[in-house]
Write a structure and sequence with these properties.
With 252 residues, this protein is of the alpha+beta class. 36% of the residues lie in helices and 19% in strands. It starts with a strand and ends with a helix.
Amino acid sequence: MSPFKYAEIPPVEHLRDFIDTYWIMETGALYQPAEVRLYADGTTDIFVNMGNTRPLLNNKPLLPGTIYFGGTMTASSLIQRLPNSVFIGIRFKPGGFAFFYKLPLQELTDEIIEFPDRFLYDLLDVDNKVTDRLNDFFIRKIKNTHNLLPLAKTVENHMGKITVDYLAEKHHVTNRTLERMFNEHMGITPKEFIKVIRFQQVLKRIRKKDFKESLSQLAYEMGYYDHAHLTNDVKRYSGFNPTTLAAFFKSS
């Protein structure tokens, strides 16, 4: 096999409001160990270590044969990739996880915990039928819940340039109800989610060098008060300041 393989497979149409993608990551014997930084994006993941290695995620070993849940990401993470590794994962859209499982998400923000769903674990073999098995499993498991997805979609459509007051007014709920829904079904406040989505848009523009004059101009275009406000958010959600991040993308 090649030293590194990564694939994302979309779920069946019926699940695409809730599940972003299924993903498979494999490394061969010739893969050179590396550390990879992950950036805050507001998603949650279930993933399993199908190999025999014990890579570190934020200095925590990911044990072979163990299934994990990663809470809503509001900070950057550092994962160690090792040779001869195999991981399979399910990435849920913001608010999507709560349609299948009930966990105290507010307590699990940025946490990685063991997730003992043996029924799901038994489906996770790397073969050409794995996505069919996952689709069948999640279609049967889906349950009704307070629907946070339209609110998350509104934030994404506005690229995070939106206020909590506007979001509540648009969806005809009180700010208090909005806060409760986000905490229960995403584990973070609506304000935090808005900030993460705006950061994701800034990250895309820094990666593509899509700003005409300066980072101050980018801050203005993305609705930050000033350059310092942009810098604080980027550093919080990526681990780097914008200048360092731009230099990193330029060199990679």
